[in-house]
Amino acid sequence: MQEHYYDDQNDEDDRSHSSYDCEESKDEYDETRDDYNMPMKPTNGDLKQHVVAVTIAVIAAVTTHAQIHGGFESWKNQLMNDWDALRSSFAGKRTDSSTRTGVPRAAPNGGAPHAAPVMNAIPADLRQKAVQKAVQDIAAAEDSSLAIGHARASAFRRTADLKFCYTDAFDSSQKAKNLVDLDFIIPLEPSVAVLHSYYLSDALGLDSSFVYDSVDTFGSFDSDIILKKIGAAIEEYEGEGLSTQRVRLIIESYVDSDLVDDEHVCLLQQYAANKRSGRSIRGRTKAYDQPHLSSFYDNKVVSTAVSSSREASDMMTPASLTFTGFATKFINLGAQPVNLYWDGGHISSGPKAGQIHTALVGAIPIMESIGTASFPGHSFFVTPSYDKDHVLRRWTVTEDDIVLYYDPLENLYTENQETEIQKLCDSGKLNLKQKFARDAWIVDRSFSRDYLVKTGRHYLSVFPQPLVPEVVQEIASSSDEGMMPMWGADFLGQVHSIETSELYFTAIPNALPKLSRDDFLPDVEQQRCLEMKKYRSSQVKGNGNISNSTMQLDIKVVSCAPRVLEVKRFLSPVEVQHLIDLASGSKGDVSMQSSTVMASGINDKKVRSSTKQVNRSSTGGWIHREQDALVDGIFRRVADLLGVDERMMRDQRPAHLIGTDDYESLPTHDRIVEAMQLLRYEPGEHYSAHHDFTYPSVFHRYQPKRYATVLLYLTGEGDVIENGIRRSRSKKSAADGESEDGLAGGETTFPRAITTEFHDGVKVKPQSGKAILFYNVLPDGNMDDLSQHAGEKVEAGVKYVANIWVWDPIIS
Ligand SMILES: O=C(O)CCC(=O)C(=O)O
Ligand SMILES: [Fe+2]
Fold first, then answer.
1. Which atom of ligand 1 is nearest to the CA of 792?
2. Dist. CA 791 → ligand 1 center (Å)
3. Which one is the CATH code of 495-597+605-650+671-808: 1.10.600.10, 3.40.50.1580, 3.40.50.1370, 2.60.120.620?
4. Distance from the CA of 809 to the CA of which of 460, 531, 659, 675 falls in 20 to 30 A?
């Protein structure tokens, strides 16, 4: 077993690292002090490196995160004061072996008899202030409502639902139904280092992957230091164990005490306890336990009563499905980028008969992943990106094996793998960040085994993920903190009702100018609402005089697994026509182009267009919320439908303002919605079964996902488009059996939906103004493989739909 983590520094660094806790001399302290005012650059001396790196980390953390400038001097002074205070306070104590101050004593094997001082890195009030200031800055001073997303992103904690203490069960904070305890066992190495970094990121509220990045940049501000400190403390207290208090104090030298998570402490305590024996780490989280099919048909079943009714319901069996596809995920654990190809077998006829048909799925960068929907028996292979003829690894996928790793070291024992990785790092073929990512995958892979055993599902996210709460009935109040909520789907036909103040547009406003950033300032917004009032109504065919200020929408469950809900009359005919006008170009700027699919990492038109023909043959265009007040109203209604705050759904960089003075370069990381994607299918066009989710980069702290899809149907079965105007099939012509060439086909199918009767899954018929909402993730943060869906072939007429994809916790 390796003694140290991430020892990718040169030997000299390494040596100084191991002596970190016990051998700093008085001189070094002084030197450090001198260096303190020097330019911020890591130096060779440990202590210096530590102090400087932590200082840089602290400052960079807050500046990166908060985008503030200034305040640096006061921080530096504060830190120096702390430093001085700590030095003097430890001066008399450090040789006193009877005093357990929480600071590890000198190691028995000699060296200067003093330990590294505890440094209170960021005083809580300062951090608080910095965050506030950042939020203010981002809000452009006068508009605090624009800042909400940022505050929410700051509150994000990837480690929120992990337990390592075992002191209490999870029950009190049950966030959604059908969650069960999942105990997992993961290898001590590298799990502790990886999870420790996640905890640090969360504690510091660092944006993006700062802690992971810092492994590269600052060398010492990573798991290494703390783990080594603990390692040294273990040596010192051999046999005595390492108290919670002591571990906590060690972490507190990096993170303000308020921010230290108890579970983080317990994780490191487990490390301390098990390091010698090499025993694994034990933890607990929550997993989604898909209720038994019978509960889908039992509208009396609520919540956890499911298990008690299980016996009686064992009779019910799911209809076997004709569709056999599933998601696949390919991970590149090697030190070079690879291309992933699908091997379509021999071409049976035509001029290319006998040749192997291959299609490029995408490029996989080092330590990244890509996915595609696949079928059993499909064959894939990877090659180096520069040599497509050199096959490195080949797989034939089955439903039992959908997460596939390309690991050139897979046949080596763990220790030998570590040696090889070390060599790759030493020779510059792998950087520390990539090494970290490899470790992150190893942890993920280990967790996913326990997840599979417990749930029967493959783990398609990257462990850990915070839980997704269920929508509470107060609109827009549930998403202020934590992950975005999901509607429950306890049984088929279950109805949730919401009140929304986003009434239907029943007439087109006289003027519909584009909205700019300032139009979202609260008073401007209020003014717009007032102006729009006369065009809106709580009834689809009403007029603006109707006095109701809200209207009710019923959200009906049409599939429990996957979770699909339907809202009839979500849009008014006027709204539908407005979107069609935008799509057909009669209102200008939405340019419709051939729809493409994600071909990860590939910027090759040929690949995209060939993929298009095979899988997705519609045309599409994007409509931004800032298009006009009507579209804005639709986005607000969608926010109410989802139970999230509409302010999270703004595109804070309206596309039409790019290049103008109004184009504010606000951070986009507080945004959760994409522009609306309008699709137009002509007869014969379709979209094959796919997932809307993609796999976020392993380096991304927030692990953003397209968690929900809202699909708006503009044309319905039988509808005709004449001169750009939608007309529903008249009752008369329908009764006469007259053919009007109206829309036929084009259902949205969920071919894997679990029911007792439908072998083809659940089909949703296009109906003008109807919306469906489905979730691409499960309450435990895993991707929902069952969310796979297709746009069936349009037989006749024109199908118009609009996709609204909503991300959690932020847009990528
Ligand atoms: O057209 C449909 O019914 C589905 C479209 C879809 O799934 C998509 O565009 O992602
Ligand atoms: Fe889709």
1. 3
2. 5
3. 2.60.120.620
4. 659
Q: Which of 592, 767, 801, 806 to mutate to test the pocket of ligand 1 (most atoms within 8 A of CB)?
A: 801
The rounded Å distance from CA 480 to ligand 1 centre is 29
Q: Are residues 104 and 115 in contact, defined by beta-carbon separation less than 8 angstroms?
A: yes
User: Rg of the chain over CA atoms, in angstroms?
Assistant: 29
- Render 431-444 in DSSP notation, one character per residue: -HHHHHHHHHHHHH
- Residue 373 CA to ligand 2 center (angstroms) comes to 12
Å from CA of 789 to ligand 2 middle = 6
Q: Is the CB of 564 under 6 A from ligand 1?
A: no
Give the β-pairing of 536-537 and 326-332.
unpaired
Residue 569, classed as helix, strand or coil, is coil
Task: Please indicate whether residue 745, judged by its CB atom, sits closer than 6 Å to ligand 1.
Answer: no
pLDDT digits (tens, 9 = 90+) for 695-747: 999 988 889 899 999 999 999 999 999 989 999 876 556 566 655 689 999 99
Write down the domain spans for the chain: 11-167+184-273, 326-455, 495-597+605-650+671-808
**pLDDT tens digits, 735-793:** 666 556 899 999 999 999 999 999 999 999 999 999 999 999 999 999 999 999 999 99
Contact (CB, 8 A) for 640 and 550: no
The ligand whose atoms approach the alpha carbon of 617 most closely is 1
Burial 575-609 (b: 16+ CB within 10 A, else e): bbbbbbbbbbeebeebebeebebebbbbeeeebbe
Atom of ligand 1 at shortest range from CA of 692: 10
Dihedral sign of CA atoms 100, 104, 107, 113 in order? negative
ipTM tops the 0.90 cut: yes
